[in-house]
Design a protein that fits this description.
The protein has helices spanning 3-19, 70-77, 82-101, 120-125, 132-144, 155-168, 170-178, 180-192, 201-240; strands at residues 30-35, 59-63. With 243 residues, it is mainly α. The chain has two domains: 1-35 and 53-66, no CATH class; 68-243, Transferase(Phosphotransferase), domain 1 (Orthogonal Bundle). Helix 3 runs antiparallel to helix 9 (201-240) and helix 5 (132-144) packs antiparallel against helix 8.
Length: 243
């Protein structure tokens, strides 16, 4: 494929995303672009046309990973605090909600498999279910908050770890020690795993936003109290000290 054609096609895809309210400056480096080739027969009448399959002709972008590895972040900076974990969960869900509203999805038919964070449905069936991304977030929260995740060397061992962890509720128990809200979120995701039901982003973003804003307000209150105490101490010292 010529460079000119690649640039033209990527520009067209970026224009589609821009019309959906997604700015290209927030996208990582583009590796490739194109349109989805769906499974089964395609009955489109022309190369630029579309058949009745819902994914036929859907534009896609292949991008490179952005940022540092989670393992590197934890190794150098330590595990996340409860406030940081809640904020991380909130930010991830907000990103997924924005992508969902713009009709942007991960490759659900052949997703990249990560033995540590991929959902059980993705590992077992090679495709995502509506709650797969949320399930991956739960594994990320478990890891960044100090949970022990064994290094997996096969899909079978990764599935066994997930099955044991959910059955024994060890993930929920650990997250419960970090935050009751994160434990409730893990319970909610557990009830959706493998089902066709979508994640209710709005209700969880409302709860997480309330928790994030509450922790921010508490921080401001503590800072204000500390400043007030210092001022009172200074006033008392200046009032009692004499020549």
């Amino acid at each position: 494929m010529s460079l000119w054609y690649q640039v033209q096609r990527q520009t067209k895809v970026l224009n589609i995303l821009r019309n959906q309210g997604i700015l290209s400056k927030y996208l990582p480096e583009i590796v490739a672009s194109g349109r989805i080739l769906h499974s089964g027969p395609c009955k489109k009448e022309s190369p630029g046309g579309r058949c009745d399959h819902p994914l036929c002709g859907t534009p896609i972008l292949v991008t490179s990973p952005v940022g540092k590895l989670l393992s590197s972040v934890i190794a150098y900076e330590g595990q996340f605090s409860a406030e940081e974990a809640i904020r991380c969960c909130r930010d991830c869900l907000a990103a997924l909600r924005s992508a969902s509203m713009a009709n942007v999805q991960h490759d659900r038919d052949s997703p990249a498999i990560n033995l540590q964070f991929s959902s059980s449905h993705a590992l077992q069936h090679g495709k995502l279910c509506p709650s797969s991304d949320a399930e991956s977030i739960v594994y990320v929260l478990f890891f960044i908050s100090g949970g022990t995740m064994q290094q997996q060397d096969s899909i079978e061992s990764a599935l066994q770890w997930r099955e044991r962890s959910w059955a024994k509720r060890s993930i929920q128990q650990h997250l419960g020690q970090v935050s009751a809200l994160l434990k409730a979120f893990a319970d909610y995701v557990d009830s959706l795993c493998g089902t066709p039901y979508p994640v209710d982003y709005d209700i969880w973003l409302k709860r997480l936003n309330r928790a994030v804003e509450g922790s921010t307000d508490r921080g401001k209150m503590i800072e204000e109290v500390a400043i007030t105490l210092r001022l009172e101490d200074a006033a008392e010292f200046s009032g009692t000290s004499g020549p």
